[in-house]
């Protein structure tokens, strides 16, 4: 993404990235990631980035993710860690927080349903 004519080019401060723990038989999933060939600044926000610039940068990063063969593995890594910054697996940090909240609610509902089923079976 090129800066707008009235904005200076900002270089992203890239947080140190954790090495993904999961490895497949063919090696770690991240070796196949398309983003390894793109600049990291596309995936991580510079400090005090204007909203319009952030949204454009995130959309560009998501387009890279969309063509990545390990997008699902990347997304799950970011959700399991959880990665607090950047675009991972086609999701921003805010979008990952929504996914995690939904998973927590689903887990609570599944536990409630299992407990209710056990109580019904016991009362049988």
Automatic annotation (TrEMBL):
Q: Which family does it belong to?
A: Belongs to the WhiB family.
Q: Where is this region: Disordered?
A: 1-29
What region holds the 4Fe-4S Wbl-type domain?
Answer: 34-98
Q: How is the cofactor bound?
A: Binds 1 [4Fe-4S] cluster per subunit. Following nitrosylation of the [4Fe-4S] cluster binds 1 [4Fe-8(NO)] cluster per subunit.
A Gene Ontology cellular component where this protein is annotated is: cytoplasm
Protein name in the entry: Transcriptional regulator WhiB
The record's section on PANTHER family has:
TRANSCRIPTIONAL REGULATOR WHID-RELATED (PTHR38839)
